[in-house]
């Protein structure tokens, strides 16, 4: 790949042929009053060459034949003219209301920005492609108010995406947004290459999303891919970058000296003896003879710098009646975990639109994606955290270990083996992911310029081939050996077909502008899965993946899992959806806006077959009123409001059933046979999301300043939650909950062109979120999470962490005796000593127990923000993005697990800051105290940490080479990018981005540094 990249650059620079350019001149006027327009930017499209019109609207510029001149100015629509043999080009610019005549993509159509009544944010290609990542949604992090994107560091892994909070209690994607790519529905868009995307629009409120029906209750992510332009000669583009990923903020673990000190302070004679055992086995340190001569930094050993690269080639163009677009891309990413942990993807994308006649248009497109992902060993990071530093990776004396002499903490006396490398080196998890999207649409003008009929067919076919290989290994002693070779193969296929038919009527009668849409949608979604597990296939030295086949295994595992499913099994499901929908968009005199939709959705997924969901939106363009004329401040001011309902079809369908058992009952002296019938069947219906949105859109000071502000209130009624069954053990899911998400969103941007050579932009967004449970159908709470308890109560947030509140650390014996709760604990046989936690007795019963647990915080951030800055000076361009969030907490499960894990290591932060005597710490317990049952009988606030962070998200510096004078004069831009180079946070982990707030073995999110080039021919 590197060789091909270099050859392409050499080719571009050597194919230089000189040709004479020509001078184009003319005058630019306003179509409204035919007066000259000074200050119009006249730029050769795709280059940095340009001039501005003078006071009389005149201009003169050198242009090559075939190039396109672009005329743009604030307040006017942009005009593009391709240069052929002409030498004079006069332009008449149409007025543009604060540039808000720009058309944005909405459901089943487009709409002018000025006419929007809902909350929609659009991100364009330049902002998307700055982020070097496999997943396109990663590029939206911090750029859209109300959108939370939680990164994932593992190659090929989807980020967690939430639009305006969490509206469903159940997991499994119940709160995921809908992704729509050129009209086709998807659960995610990880198969897309960012270079293929023209725009990403986030439809946030119910009014904007409702036209897409029951999959849109959690917001819609609309993706528009690149298309060709009419009468455009073929334009070839190449975009590529190569870079390195580096793990930042690596957690520092206790070194051997610190660990030995902790062991001796723990009060455990056994742990102190284990240190002595290590010194006897591996020798004593020459620097400190009381420490073993081994000091292993496990995180340093399991991590590596990893490469990332992307190469994309595209061709677009068109003629009078045809447009086309073709794209090829190759993406490769190594994982920073030192094992087979990579991701690569090859994509082919085509799009063709043909005007068969003046009234008939046909479009076809196809996207083929072929990806291979090697998943990381999920336990590696937890194993490395707990592994003791007094042991090496390999121990030459371990002649009974294989395939390598892996060191084993059992040899030192510890209960666990504490070595991540055997699992990492003898596990391979491969997934082959193939996506095929085929679309066909036909549009016919029934009444020219008034009534259009469009039919569109989409077929998304996905296959997943999983191969999990677990080779045997042995530590020699202990129970952690893997004695058998295991091979799991799983094939999944997803076929989703959609057929949409719409009629769109447009009519303008004087000041009345009306658009009416009516349509139907049919969707057929089928899923199949086949999985089998083979035991003991050929393996060992010299035997590779040629033996990774089930028919070579000695046995097929037919046992059952804990949920009753077999390890080897066949499964599938099929769901149908049919919908009727309509939309009316009306505006009067471009001042008063009305927008409404109605959708009826039917499905076989729930017992309630049909759902009916209306929405309405209204807007008032205040700036068009006579009293706002010549106000000198507002170029555009619009007030908007919307209300709507949506059903949520993302929640898993009904399960359970009715069971009967024969029995004998006695009445008097007579026995009667009978049946005892019980049911755990879940009769579910739609979750219904009701949302209200109020917003302001404003453009000020010649549209240099733009402001968008929204307040939203989103309630999920009939939320599906678990409910205990009467008289029968267990619980079932029922539609009885109510959950609310509400907040404010603000977006402010300032853009100014200072001169022909210099322009800059600065902006930011800020959003708040309050997640609150309003009703649990009379239940006191919903609790989950086991030892790391999470609880949902009325008035609180979904799955807030729940435990004891730490008031400090006991410094002296007198403090213990002065605390009635500690005295009670001692009376109950518990040991309480200085260096132990002091808890708040919330119940006031002079005892610390389950009744004293309180809400310790939510994993959902209560606010988030983003800041952007960009400037262009001559051939240089620079951009910078900063993001952040706060108000959320993270459960440090790794540290909390110390209380029950077998003699593990602990992080260096604790080792340095632990309590070592009176006055040394009132926050951290002692080495003995952190494992004391008194301190760890329940989760407590010490292990719940602040999740706030501020991050320098992206810095990009680019330089565009001067254009060559000749027929072959490509536009070439080089750039360097630093993605996530700096993150500021307090949390004691690799990073503060943890989707569910539970950090047990989170894959680190690396910083990425790339060098790239953009070439347009």
Secondary-structure blueprint of this entry?
Elements: H1 2-14, E1 22-30, E2 41-44, E3 50-52, E4 58-63, E5 68-72, E6 79-82, E7 91-93, E8 103-106, E9 109-112, E10 120-124, H2 125-128, E11 147-150, E12 160-163, E13 178-181, E14 184-186, E15 197-203, H3 206-209, E16 220-225, E17 232-246, H4 256-265, H5 269-282, H6 298-302, E18 306-318, E19 322-334, E20 342-355, E21 360-375, H7 380-386, H8 421-425, E22 427-447, E23 451-470, E24 486-509, E25 512-535, E26 555-556, E27 569-588, E28 592-603, E29 610-621, E30 634-648, E31 658-667, E32 670-679, E33 687-700, E34 705-724, E35 731-753, E36 758-768, E37 770-775, E38 782-784, E39 790-792, E40 800-803, E41 806-809, H9 813-817, H10 820-827, E42 837-839, E43 854-857, E44 863-873, E45 876-886, E46 889-892, H11 893-896, H12 908-913, E47 944-946, E48 949-960, E49 971-985, E50 998-999, E51 1007-1016
Parallel strand pairs: 1-7, 13-16, 46-50
Antiparallel strand pairs: 1-4, 2-3, 2-5, 5-6, 8-9, 10-15, 11-12, 13-14, 15-16, 17-18, 17-51, 18-19, 19-20, 20-21, 21-22, 22-23, 23-24, 24-25, 25-26, 25-27, 27-28, 28-29, 29-30, 30-33, 31-32, 33-34, 34-35, 35-36, 35-37, 36-44, 38-39, 39-40, 40-43, 41-42, 44-45, 45-48, 46-47, 48-49, 49-51
Helix pairs in contact: 4-5
């Amino acid at each position: 790949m590197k060789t091909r990249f270099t050859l392409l650059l050499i080719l571009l620079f050597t194919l230089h042929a000189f040709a004479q350019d020509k001078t184009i001149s003319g005058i630019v006027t306003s179509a409204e009053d035919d007066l000259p327009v000074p200050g119009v930017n006249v730029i050769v499209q795709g280059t940095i060459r340009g001039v501005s019109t003078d006071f009389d609207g005149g201009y003169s510029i050198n242009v090559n034949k075939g190039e396109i001149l672009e005329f743009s100015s604030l307040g006017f629509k942009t005009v593009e003219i391709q240069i052929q043999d002409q030498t004079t080009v006069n332009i008449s610019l149409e007025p543009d209301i604060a540039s808000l005549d720009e058309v944005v993509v909405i459901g089943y159509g487009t709409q002018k920005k000025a006419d929007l009544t809902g909350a929609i944010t659009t991100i364009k290609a330049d902002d998307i492609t700055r982020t070097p990542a496999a997943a396109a949604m990663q590029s939206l992090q911090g750029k859209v108010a109300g959108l939370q994107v939680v990164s994932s560091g593992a190659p090929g892994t989807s980020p967690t995406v939430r639009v305006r909070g969490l509206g469903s209690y159940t997991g499994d994607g119940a709160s995921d947004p809908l992704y729509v790519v050129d009209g086709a529905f998807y659960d995610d868009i990880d198969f897309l290459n960012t270079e293929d995307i023209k725009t990403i629009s986030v439809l946030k409120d119910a009014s904007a999303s409702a036209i897409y029906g029951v999959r849109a209750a959690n917001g819609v992510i609309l993706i528009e891919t690149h298309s060709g332009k009419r009468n455009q000669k073929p334009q070839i583009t190449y975009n590529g970058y190569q870079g390195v990923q580096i793990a930042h903020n690596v957690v520092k673990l206790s070194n051997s000296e610190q660990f030995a000190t902790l062991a001796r302070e723990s009060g455990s004679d056994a742990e102190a003896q284990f240190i002595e055992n290590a010194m006897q086995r591996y020798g004593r340190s020459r620097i400190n003879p009381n420490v073993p001569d081994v000091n292993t930094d496990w995180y340093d050993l399991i991590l590596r710098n990893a490469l990332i690269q992307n190469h994309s080639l595209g061709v677009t163009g068109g003629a009078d009646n045809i447009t086309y677009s073709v794209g090829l891309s190759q993406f490769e990413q190594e994982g920073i975990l030192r094992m087979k942990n990579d991701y690569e993807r090859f994509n082919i994308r085509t799009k063709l639109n043909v005007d068969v006649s003046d009234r008939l248009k046909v479009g076809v497109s196809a996207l083929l994606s072929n990806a291979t992902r090697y998943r990381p060993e999920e336990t590696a990071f937890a194993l490395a955290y707990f592994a003791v530093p007094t042991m090496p990776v390999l121990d030459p004396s371990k002649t009974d270990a294989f395939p390598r002499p892996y060191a084993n903490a059992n040899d030192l006396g510890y209960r666990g083996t504490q070595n991540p490398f055997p699992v990492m080196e003898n596990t391979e998890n491969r997934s082959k992911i193939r996506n095929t999207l085929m679309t066909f649409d036909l549009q016919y003008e029934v009444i020219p310029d008034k009534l259009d009929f469009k039919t569109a067919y989409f077929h998304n076919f996905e296959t997943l081939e999983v191969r999990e290989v677990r080779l045997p290994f042995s530590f020699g002693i202990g129970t952690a050996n893997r004695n058998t070779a295991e091979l799991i193969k799983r094939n999944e296929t997803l076929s989703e077909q959609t057929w949409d038919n719409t009629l769109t009527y447009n009519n303008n009668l004087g000041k009345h502008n009306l658009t009416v849409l009516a349509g139907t949608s049919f969707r057929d979604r089928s899923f199949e899965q086949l999985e089998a597990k083979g035991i003991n296939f050929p393996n060992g030295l010299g035997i590779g993946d040629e033996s990774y086949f089930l028919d070579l295994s000695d046995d097929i595992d037919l046992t059952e899992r804990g949920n009753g499913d077999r390890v080897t099994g066949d499964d599938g499901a099929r769901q149908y959806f049919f919908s009727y929908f309509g939309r009316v968009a009306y505006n009067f005199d471009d001042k008063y806006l009305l927008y409404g939709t109605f959708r009826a959705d039917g499905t076989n997924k729930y017992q309630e077959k049909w759902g009916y969901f209306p929405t309405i939106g209204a807007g008032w363009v205040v700036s068009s009123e006579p009293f706002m004329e010549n106000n000198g401040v507002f170029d555009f001011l619009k007030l908007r409001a919307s209300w709507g309902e949506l059903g949520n079809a993302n929640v898993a369908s009904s399960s359970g059933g009715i069971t009967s058992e024969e029995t004998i009952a006695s009445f008097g002296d007579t026995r009667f046979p009978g049946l005892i019938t019980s049911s755990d069947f879940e009769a579910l219906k739609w979750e219904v999301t009701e949302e209200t949105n109020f917003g302001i859109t404003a453009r000020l000071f010649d549209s240099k300043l733009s402001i968008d502000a929204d307040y939203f209130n989103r309630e999920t009624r009939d939320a599906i939650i678990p409910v205990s069954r009467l008289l029968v053990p267990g619980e079932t899911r029922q539609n009885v909950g109510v959950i609310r998400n509400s907040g404010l969103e603000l977006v402010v941007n300032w853009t100014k062109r200072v001169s022909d050579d210099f322009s800059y932009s600065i902006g930011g967004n800020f959003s708040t979120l309050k997640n609150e449970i309003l009703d649990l159908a009379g239940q006191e709470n919903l609790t989950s999470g086991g030892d790391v308890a999470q609880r949902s109560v009325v008035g609180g947030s979904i799955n807030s962490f729940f435990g004891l509140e730490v008031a400090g650390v006991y410094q002296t014996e007198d403090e213990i005796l002065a605390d009635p709760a500690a005295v009670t604990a001692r009376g109950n046989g518990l040991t309480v000593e200085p260096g132990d936690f002091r808890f708040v007795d919330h119940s006031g019963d002079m005892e610390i127990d389950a009744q004293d647990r309180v809400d310790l915080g939510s994993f959902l951030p209560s606010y988030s923000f983003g800041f952007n800055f960009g400037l262009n000076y001559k051939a240089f361009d620079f951009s910078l993005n900063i993001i952040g969030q706060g108000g959320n907490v993270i459960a440090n499960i790794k540290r909390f697990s110390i209380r029950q894990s077998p003699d593990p290591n602990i992080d260096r932060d604790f080792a340095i800051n632990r309590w070592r005597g009176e006055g040394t710490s009132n926050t951290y317990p002692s080495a003995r105290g952190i494992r004391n049952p008194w301190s760890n009988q329940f989760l407590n606030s010490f292990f719940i940490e602040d999740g706030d962070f501020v991050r320098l998200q992206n810095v990009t510096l680019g330089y565009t080479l001067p254009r060559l004078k000749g027929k072959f004069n490509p536009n070439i831009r080089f750039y360097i990018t630093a993605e996530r180079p700096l993150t500021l946070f307090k949390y004691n982990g690799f990073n503060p981005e943890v989707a569910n707030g539970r950090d047990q073995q989170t894959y680190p999110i690396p910083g990425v540094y790339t060098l790239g080039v953009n070439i347009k021919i």
